[in-house]
Specification:
The complex is a heterodimer of chains A (457) and B (141). The relative contact order of chain A is 0.13. Chain A has eleven helices and 20 strands. In chain A, helix 5 packs across helix 6, helix 8 packs parallel to helix 9 and helix 10 crosses helix 11. Chain A is globular, with a radius of gyration of 22 Å. Chain A is α/β, with parallel strands linked by helices. In chain A, a hairpin with a 2-residue loop joins strand 15 and strand 16. In chain B, strand 2 and strand 3 form a beta hairpin. Helices cover 31% and strands 39% of the residues of chain B. The radius of gyration of chain B is 16 Å and the shape is globular. Chain B has 141 residues and is α+β, with helices and mostly antiparallel strands. Chain B has two domains: 67 residues, VC0802-like (2-Layer Sandwich), CATH 3.30.2130; 71 residues, VC0802-like (2-Layer Sandwich). Chain B contains five helices and seven strands. The chains are: A alpha/beta (457), B alpha+beta (141). The interface between A and B is medium-sized, with 17 and 21 residues. The complex binds zinc ion (ZN). The site of zinc ion (ZN) has 6 residues of chain A, from loops.
Chain lengths: 457, 141
Amino acid sequence: MSNRVLRQNRCAFSGVNMSSFVVENRIWDPAELMQRQERAALQLERLRETVARAARVPFYQKIFEKDGITPEKLKTLDDLRRLPFTTKDDMRDNYPLGLCAVPRAELARIHGSSGTTGVPTFVGYTKNDLKIWANLCARFLVAGGLRPEHTVQVAFGYGLFTGGFGLHYGIEEVGAAIIPAASGNTPRQIMLMRDLEPDVLICTPSYALNVAEVMHSMGLDPHGMSVKYAHFGGEMWTEDLRVEIENQTGILAFNNYGLSEIIGPGVSGECAVREGMHLQEDHFLVECLDPETLEPVEDYAYGELVITALTREAMPMIRYRTRDIAAMDPCLCECGRTTRRMSRVMGRSDDMLIIRGVNVFPSQIEEALLAVEGTAPHYLIEVDRPGALDEVSVKVEVNPGFFSDKMSEMQDLRDRIDRKIQGYTGLHARVELVAPKTIERSAGKAVRVIDHRLTRK
Amino acid sequence: MKIHQLSMFLENKPGRLSEPCRLLADAGISIVTLSLADTQQFGIMRLIVHDWEKARKVLESAGCVVNVTEVVATEVDDQPGGLAKILEVIEQAKVNIEYMYAFTFRSGDKAVLVFRFNDPDAAVEVLKAKGINVIGNVELY
Ligand SMILES: [Zn+2]
């Protein structure tokens, strides 16, 4: 990834909230306040245990034998860099549960990731893994305002996807009441929200926007709803989208991060300061590497997250290449947690589009669109190479709040979008204004990019 | 004496024009006149209809983006020089026209000019002072 892209996005790293706490600051687990030195010692101890467990997995055993790796040889945390990477392909090669380190009888649950790019991958959990996972989810939920007296509507899919069950047991751990609404059926979600008056909503950010839209079309005002906080995850989103959702609904939105290959939600989450997500570093060793050289990037610079799970029994994961691009903030946080914070994920090293030699992330185009007044955040990027050169078009839905009978104003809107995209990405895109609700909505992950170059032979 | 005009965003694709017209027809709303401004990629349809409030509801509930603006309609003899006379009055009064369109109705011997002014109230004053017939909703329908 070019440094230009990194610098351009540095500004997107700081949160919108300049003051301190937006909710009362409470800590769920004293481990979040551990002295850094003490935590580092614990990490090293757990890293050795992880290597010992991984040695029971044929895939790791072979590599460890070849490279002469044993737990005793890990003297400092820097020795982590001697360990091999694990990729999604390694998981596929060991389909379905070849990376498990425990006998099948010890598994308590199996989750999987959606096979958007081919074969699904499965992840096993022992009973103890599930206990730790619930605790990790409880930590970020409490950091983001959840209290035992609350009611939470979970509008995540309950199934192989880790989001639904992961958050569910975290909420249960905290002691709040759960409405397991699961995903989809927006009118029913709204009915539940209206009649059962939850305090907290859990879903993807794009789905929250969809719910607000449907509420408006039903003549309901989202500001009149009981929901005070939302914990969003499951897809990439931007700081501008947070402002958009909060303005449209009056909900305070918190970000959290996780991935099924590592555990699911619970790797990191925002505290009341909302300037980065606290990494649960007593359970995960997180590196931020240049995706091409695989060398560590500096603090605050964007790189690929590479995560080693330190306490997973069923499936120890060593240096998993997440493909998620984010930056690290080592500063101590006002909230008292001593863990490092990560920025929101601003792209996938896989999704990075290389257009006419320029690295572009869909999130940059999203930020550009939101920066133009009157543009709804529904868009579709299409890339094609009809001749020798790449061409980009961005379809943008006309916002009912911004439509003029004057052609000059509509052309001006299009030109402003064009200039903003150029400013954010350095690329000229063909901007097409399209009628509202013509870009397909989804209850889960939104399709933002279609790369036609991939389907041209 | 201003008239409510509905405008709609349309994608420049086959069938996009007939859709709203069909919606209005099904709702029993007749269209007095219609004008289109378009680019290669999208267009703006401007409509003057009977019962604009109902029309707006019908179109919006079908998911269309609808905008209501006040326009000024004047009647002019359908003969050489009719338009020029009105435009001269407007030019002399230095009132800015955003866009305009014309149509004939009823017997056909009179044409109606529809103007979108930045300041419709000021424009109506000027036109009336010069003895130009400004038409209201009632007369037009
Ligand atoms: Zn904090």
